[in-house]
Every structure is written in structure tokens, then in C-alpha cells.
Q: What sequence folds into this?
């Protein structure tokens, strides 16, 4: 899989003005298909300030965030994804420098349709991990190689990573990203009765730090 910077523009947001960079993925040798609009996936980086490596001592504040259509677009209360994204953008803007890498990896990598099937299983009593397993998927099937490629393209060599997920830390390190520091990213304001079990399962079964 290859990843190519395709387009970019300024993006004013409620948190300040970011630079939005769109990346396209494709199979090696597929540049011709991409040129006529046949694209496997599009991922983005939201960049605030100058994040290029200048030889300074401070790693770049960063979050690698997976898409959540149900939470971020439809306002679902079953997860804390939208609150985590908003908190990351707000914190980066307040510091004046940082990046959110936003990957299309819905449902921890199983896609939107299967994520809704997993929701149905959860309504019948399964937790978020068991639902994925019952559908024949890994508990967490995400990969972070593309995120590493995006950070490298942005010339980000070391990050202060906002995450609670030890697998994400390990995955990025295995892909060559230097984790200069790890910072907890629990957001308490958006938790509800609908997300309590989900968050507890992330701690108990996925090892999320807290």
C-alpha cells in the first residue's frame, strides 16, 4: 500500500485555523488509477503551526485518531470518540503546534456496516470486544503504518502522543515513530450511561491506560 499527499488547504475551525492535508492510498503502481479518481482510501492530517523537525528538544503534540462516523457525525453516545477528537484539537490549538492524524478505520478496523452489526450484538448482551470476535474479526484490527507514513511526510520525527491505547503506542513505534512522551487522553465530560460499559471494556479487555 502506498500513500501520497494529494491536496491541502487552510481549515478554520471552532478551535482555530488548521491546515488540512489529504492523503490517498493505493496499491503500488496504481498512480494512473488514482489520477482518474479511483481511490482506495483517503486519510487526513490536521496540522496546527510548524510541526517540521527543527532539531529542537520538544516532540510534537499529536493524536492518531480513527474515524467514528456514528459518534463524530451522528452524535452517538455509545462512545467518547467525538469528545476525544475535540479535546485533541483544542489542546493542540492552545499549544500552538501539533497534528491530528485522522485515519479511516471505523469500528477498530471492521468498517461501518460491521460496526453496526457489532452494535446489535452489544444490544443483545455482548461487550465491544466480544461483538467483534463473534463477527470473526480481531478485537482491534487497526494498523498504524499509514499514520507513520503521514507523520514522516510532515517531517514529524518525534511525538508526544495523546492516547490511552498501549497497542497504538506499540504499533506506531514498530512503524518507526519515536514516542518522545505519552499523555493520557481520557475525556470525562461526554461520558453517559450509554458509554459506561464500553469504556470499562476498553480498560479491562483492551488494556487502555487510565
A:
Amino acid at each position: 500500500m502506498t500513500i501520497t499527499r494529494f491536496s491541502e488547504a487552510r481549515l478554520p475551525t471552532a478551535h482555530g485555523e488548521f491546515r488540512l492535508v489529504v492523503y490517498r492510498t493505493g496499491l503500488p503502481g496504481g498512480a494512473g488509477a488514482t489520477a482518474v479518481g479511483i481511490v482506495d482510501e483517503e486519510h487526513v492530517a490536521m496540522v496546527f503551526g510548524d510541526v517540521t523537525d527543527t532539531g529542537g528538544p520538544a516532540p510534537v503534540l499529536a493524536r492518531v485518531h480513527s474515524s467514528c462516523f456514528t459518534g463524530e457525525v451522528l452524535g452517538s453516545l455509545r462512545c467518547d470518540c467525538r469528545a476525544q477528537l475535540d479535546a485533541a484539537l483544542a489542546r493542540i490549538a492552545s499549544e500552538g503546534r501539533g497534528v491530528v492524524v485522522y485515519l479511516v478505520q471505523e469500528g477498530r478496523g471492521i468498517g461501518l456496516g460491521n460496526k453496526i452489526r457489532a452494535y446489535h450484538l452489544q444490544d443483545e448482551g455482548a461487550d465491544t470486544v466480544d461483538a467483534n470476535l463473534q463477527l470473526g474479526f480481531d478485537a482491534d484490527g487497526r494498523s498504524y503504518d499509514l499514520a507513520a507514513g503521514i507523520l514522516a511526510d510532515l517531517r514529524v520525527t518525534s511525538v508526544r502522543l495523546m492516547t490511552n491505547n498501549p497497542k497504538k503506542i506499540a504499533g506506531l513505534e514498530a512503524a518507526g515513530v519515536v514516542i518522545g512522551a505519552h499523555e493520557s487522553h481520557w475525556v470525562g465530560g461526554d461520558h453517559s450511561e450509554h458509554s459506561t460499559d464500553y469504556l470499562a471494556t476498553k480498560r479491562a479487555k483492551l488494556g487502555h491506560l487510565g
In short: The chain has a mean pLDDT of 83. The chain is about 35% helix and 25% strand. Residues 2-105+142-206 form a domain with the Rossmann fold fold (CATH 3.40.50.10990). The beta strands are 2-13, 16-26, 41-48, 60-66, 98-103, 158-162, 178-183.
